[in-house]
Design goal:
The complex is a heterodimer of chains A (333) and B (330). The model of chain A has no long low-confidence stretch (mean pLDDT 95). Chain A is built from 14 helices and 12 strands. The relative contact order of chain A is 0.13. In chain A, strands 1-2-3-4-7-8-9-12 form an 8-stranded parallel barrel, surrounded by 5 helices. Chain A is α/β, with parallel strands linked by helices and 333 residues long. In chain A, helix 1 crosses helix 2 and helix 6 crosses helix 7. Chain A is globular. Chain A has one domain: Luciferase-like domain (TIM Barrel, Alpha-Beta Barrel), CATH 3.20.20. Chain B has one domain: Luciferase-like domain (TIM Barrel). In chain B, strand 2, helix 2 and strand 3 form a beta-alpha-beta unit. The radius of gyration of chain B is 19 Å and the shape is globular. Chain B starts with 5 loop residues before the first strand and ends with a helix. Classes of the chains: A alpha/beta (333), B alpha/beta (330).
């Protein structure tokens, strides 16, 4: 499978700025633009529509649509509309979503995620095929729902997770799997294996399921600056107890309990000091341009077909990130 | 006040064609693009982002966004994102939606008026970045909060299918969008109720906005346009909620026969129950001068923004754009 390089946005910056960066990244050779659907921030589908209108080639992928909040019918309509305007350039990524944010929007406990994701994927595919859909799902019910138009080209469906059951499901039914950011190389390998088990179980080929991976990325002429940037990102990520398996996947000792306590007390600087420098290179890509290229390659060697990096920070960080994209991809075709 | 004229899209045409019509319509003076959220067709939120990016001045308004299918958190995010890119050019119209479509999507509303009122309040609260709490029929919010605000307020229109919603809209919404097929006297009646509703809630009616969807068709001879609108009205009048509008006109129309014919998928037959005087009373149809005259009647009734369609053959679209140019002054 051809390796691609993607870039991602988190919705924290004004959409005008992200449209501009998306354009620059495409010019530098980025193949895909992933826009996180962080609840409360810039919305990913309308942002991706804007990206489509200002870029020419890159695929856009709102990430991740949560089946507990998004009804499949308007979701199918949205993506088919985007795909009609830019055939072959639209994907969708589905996942359970952030538990805290879901709770704030009324989803107390996202039950049976494997079933819910499966039903959502099946509903989208059937609607896009123009079928009249009958589905008594756990969250949504479709009783004769039907789209009056079809996307002109297939919309690939990615499923995002690090959990074994959902990764297995992704391997069985999805067009791609997305690994979240901040995973170690060994943990990434394990996730890829779990997805491949699903692929084999469903009698599919490995190349049927693209493996994309968000990679925490910071690039600076001065390696230490980039490493310090990623220490903060990792400390924030490690506020979650669910990161224990990922943290324990490397040999470097990390005081996870202490980090969680400090982040809860909003002392992110102190929490960042508990991330050892040698761990930064194992959970992320950080350093000067040469080190970053090597870091990206390490994720590819671990089984990621499409590393997805950020183009963020100050002007120098952004310029260097675009430079890495350009060198890595060979520039825009 | 400058005369405003909006156009609306139903999502039946490709989004690329619709964008092209937006460009042409803005060039002849259109002030708003209303994109109806018809379930199963092109989706309005992403379409409106496309319209906003490809035009410079007109407002974009996703229309008939229903709380039963669009959770308020992502909806508030979507509107605020478009507004951030195009400040002051975004609105939304909220309504319960078509009951048949909702049923197909697994929803059978119990208290639609309350759901719409809550939805309007919740969107506004989310845009203010305050945490929002709500227990309501279609959704729950338990501290949901936006991290950014739209740079300018996003006006929220409520859709009125009859007089009761007109009063309720005056109490809570920033504007009213009247359903297509209202006669001029019925528009006048609903506007009066809208203003009364506003005053009863201690609001200034002069600060609120009004818009009305109008079934519109224009042709060189006027005849083809009238037949076009006759069929649209026949389809519209299948809806029992139109009984009040029909009765207010005093025109004898056999709504039972229309309902029966439409149910039998015989629209030609249904159209025969819509008399000539009804076409004149409930729509805008005819030659360009005839259309301009009827649009003026809606303005004289107090409607701020008639909302018409630019559709049909290339010749019909060109004529519609001509009417718009003459009506708005270009």
């Amino acid at each position: 499978m051809k390796v691609r390089l993607g870039m991602r946005f988190d919705g924290f910056d004004p959409v005008g700025e992200t449209v501009e960066i998306a354009t620059q990244a495409e010019n530098a050779g980025a193949d895909t633009i992933w826009m996180a659907e962080h609840l409360g921030y810039r919305e990913a589908a309308v942002s991706c529509m804007a990206f489509l209108q200002r870029t020419k080639r890159a695929m856009v992928c709102p990430t991740a649509i949560m089946p507990y909040l998004w009804h499949p019918m308007p979701t199918a309509m949205q993506f088919a509309t985007m795909a009609e305007l830019a055939p072959g350039r639209v994907g969708i990524c589905i996942s359970v979503g952030n538990l805290l944010n879901l709770r704030e929007s009324g989803i107390t406990k996202p039950e049976k995620p494997v079933r819910v994701i499966r039903e959502f994927v099946e509903a989208l595919r059937a609607l896009w095929a123009g079928e009249t859909v009958e589905q008594e799902g756990l969250i949504w019910q479709l009783r004769g729902a039907r789209l009056a138009f079809k996307p002109p080209k297939e919309i690939p469906i990615f499923v995002a997770s690090t959990g074994p059951q959902v990764l297995n499901l992704a391997g069985c039914i999805a067009d791609g799997v997305l690994f979240s950011g901040g995973l170690s190389i060994p943990f990434t390998k394990r996730c890829a294996e779990l997805a491949d088990e699903g692929v084999a179980q469903a009698g599919r080929k490995t190349e049927d399921v693209r493996k994309a991976g968000f990679v925490y990325f910071a690039c600076s002429e001065d390696s230490q600056t980039a490493i310090d940037l990623n220490k903060r990102k990792l400390a924030f990520l490690f506020r979650s107890s669910a990161q224990a398996d990922n943290i324990n996947s490397i040999d470097v000792p990390i005081d996870h309990e202490a980090i969680m306590e400090l982040v809860e007390r909003r002392e992110l600087d102190k929490a960042a000091q508990l991330i050892p420098t040698e761990a930064v290179q194992q959970f992320s890509v950080a350093g000067n341009p040469d080190e970053c290229r090597a870091g990206i390659q390490a994720y590819i060697d671990a089984g990621v077909d499409e590393p997805v990096i950020e183009v963020s920070g100050d002007e120098e960080n952004k310029r260097l990130a675009l430079e890495v994209i350009r060198e890595f991809t060979g520039g825009a075709a | 006040m400058t005369t405003r004229l909006g156009i609306r899209f139903d999502g039946f045409d490709t989004v690329g064609e619709t964008i092209e019509v937006c460009r042409q319509a803005e060039a002849v003076g259109v002030s708003g693009f209303w994109m109806t959220e018809h379930i199963g067709y092109r989706e309005a939120l992403v379409s409106c982002m496309a319209f906003a990016m490809e035009t410079e001045r007109a407002m974009v308004i996703p229309s008939t966004v229903t709380p039963y299918l669009f959770h308020p958190t992502p909806t508030a995010m979507s509107l605020a994102t478009i507004a951030e890119l195009c400040p002051g050019r975004v609105g939304i119209s909220v309504g319960v939606g078509n009951t048949l479509d909702l049923k197909e999507s697994g929803k059978e509303p119990k208290d639609a008026v309350m759901a719409v009122e809550n939805y309007i309040a919740d969107l506004r609260a989310l845009w203010s970045t305050k945490p929002v709490e709500r227990e309501t029929e279609p959704y729950r919010l338990t501290g949901a909060r936006m991290a950014f605000s739209p740079p300018e307020p996003i006006p929220v229109f409520a859709i009125a299918l009859g007089s009761d919603v007109a009063t309720a809209a005056g109490k809570s919404a920033d504007g009213i969008l009247m359903s297509a097929g209202f006669s001029v006297p019925f528009v006048s009646h609903c506007l009066k109720l809208f203003e009364e509703g506003a005053r009863s809630a201690g609001r200034n009616p002069a600060a609120l906005r009004s818009a009305g969807n109008i079934h519109f068709a224009v042709s060189a001879d006027g005849k083809a346009a009238r037949e076009n609108v006759r069929r649209k009205l026949a389809f519209l009048f299948r809806n029992r909620l139109m009984a009040e509008n029909i009765a207010s006109s005093g025109i004898p129309i056999d709504q039972d026969a229309i309902v029966e014919a439409v149910a039998a998928r015989d629209l030609d037959k249904a159209a025969t129950f819509v008399p000539d005087e009804a076409v004149e009373a409930f729509g805008v149809a005819g030659t360009p001068p005839e259309c301009a005259k009827t649009l003026d009647a809606y303005i004289a009734a107090g409607l701020q923004e008639p909302v018409i369609q630019v559709s049909g053959s290339e010749e019909e679209k060109a004529l519609a754009l001509r009417v718009i140019r003459e009506f708005t002054g270009g």
